[in-house]
Amino acid sequence: MNQTEKVKSTATKAAKEEPTSGDLISYESLDDAAYEELPEAEYLEAQKQLLENEKSIYLGQAEALKAEADYLAQEAEPGDTQFDEESGEGGTTTIDRERDLALAASALAAVEEIDDALRKIEHGTYGICESCHEVIPRMRMRALPYARLCVKCKNGGLSRR
Ligand SMILES: [Zn+2]
């Protein structure tokens, strides 16, 4: 296993074996009906845990991907990066590196979405559709804790452009 594969498998592992707190497990074990019945404060707490849990996964992924990209950059011949297409092998490294950086960027974009959702919890605007301002059903928020739109607005979004 080379260094690149090692970094990749670490990233996968981190994503699958994220630490879970006792509280998170207790909310996770609730069925949908019980989740709907939670008092608002507990519902928000449960969502906050989901968000923070996902955030740490995405941050871990971004970190591992950036480490891999850095490694690939070191692996490439110094000063050779502009001519990678010519050498073939170096070109693959560049493509891998760009892919890693793109994946890291999208992981960080997800972190920003999560931070936005956490701010909404602080401001009391969490779980409200940004388009129609209706309360988004808890089941949708549970499945996608940083959803900005209700399903109706999400699906109808294109026609409003
Ligand atoms: Zn809506």
Structural summary, described in words:
With 161 residues, the protein is mostly helical. It has one domain. It is 71% helix and 0% strand. Helix 1 (3-16) packs antiparallel against helix 4 (40-75) and helix 4 (40-75) runs antiparallel to helix 6 (89-123). The protein is elongated and about 60 Å long. It starts with a helix and ends in a 5-residue tail after the last helix. The structure holds zinc ion (ZN). Zinc ion binds next to helix 8.
- Name the ligand types: zinc ion
Q: Which percent range fits the helix content?
A: over 70%
- Write down the overall geometry: elongated
Number of helices: 8
Helix and strand element order: HHHHHHHH
Largest sheet: none
List low-pLDDT spans: 9-20
Proportion of residues in extended strands: under 5%
Number of DSSP E strands:
0
**Alpha carbon gap, first and last residue:** 49 Å
The figure for the number of domains is: 1
User: Nearest-angstrom radius of gyration?
Assistant: 20 Å
Average of the residue pLDDT scores:
83
